[in-house]
Predict the structure.
Amino acid sequence: MPTDPALDISPCVTDDDYEAWRQVRIAVLPYERTISVAELRESSSPDRLMVLARRDGVVVGHGLADRSSMAGGGSVTPRVLPEHRRHGVGTALLEHLVEHVRTLGVETLRSGADDDDSMAFAHRFGFVEVNREVEQTFHLDGPVEPTPPPDDIEVVTAQERPGLWEAAYERFGLEVLADFAVDTPLEVTRENWVREWLVDPMFLALADGEVVGCAGLGLDPDQPTRAENGLTAVRRDWRGRGLAVHLKQRTLAWAAEHGLTEVYTWTQDGNAAMRALNTRLGYATTRVGIQLARPLHDG
Ligand SMILES: CC(C)(COP(=O)(O)OP(=O)(O)OC[C@H]1O[C@@H](n2cnc3c(N)ncnc32)[C@H](O)[C@@H]1OP(=O)(O)O)[C@@H](O)C(=O)NCCC(=O)NCCS
């Protein structure tokens, strides 16, 4: 495809750039929350590249490249506004993002697609399906009364006990992340654990002062009546005692108390236990996301 001289791809620098980047994500993924400009800035890192694609000064798409939490991977996400598709913008963005990922010393490109058109694009560039995630949604229409937690469990929030989440990385975080139903092991540094996995509110189950379970909500700055469940997890020695049900119900009770009407959650297709738990709580399956990968040095 010939290079389009009117197409400019540049990194986000100003708050206006970050806001324009957010607006592309909201337009392409209206069913997902997009974090605020402040959170985007706070979570920036040297590995992450966020770009805007402009044609004749008009934003037509955006891109995101970063080190993936999947070991040895770099993630690339080109997104093009629907009215500007099939004009080579996605191709130009992908090439730009791949160039950045080459500097990260990884071997595999990772991406994702939720619709057939994007899958066609991904196949065109050599990506293949490696996993699936399922979205399940809970609609709130009244208060939620959590079942009691197991004996000897105290539930607090990470926000009221600063330092607990960080301290939970080794004994709790690494263990529960190792149990994800993923095609490639997760590689989450302590810094990422704190920067990307902690949501607000995050409910923590404590046994003898140690974190043994968690469930939380990522709020949506653009749609205050909906939120996404953050990590729900229980340490292996505490599984099978109703702790995950209790913690997830705590998030739903919080949502009801704060006027939310919808909570959605994404779970690996292979995580039958979590999907069954959500179904039992009253979540309905609403969407499927395809996870994709390709060797970096492949065409
Ligand atoms: C995927 C996406 C970025 C493509 O953007 P785009 O600007 O339309 O892509 P391009 O014009 O560069 O397409 C390049 C080639 O991909 C293939 N392709 C793209 N869209 C396609 C479609 N709807 N059907 C079939 N093939 C398609 C074609 O081979 C196309 O070349 P052609 O137009 O000469 O036939 C865009 O659809 C999008 O934003 N999707 C949602 C976000 C997403 O899922 N991104 C991750 C994808 S890995």
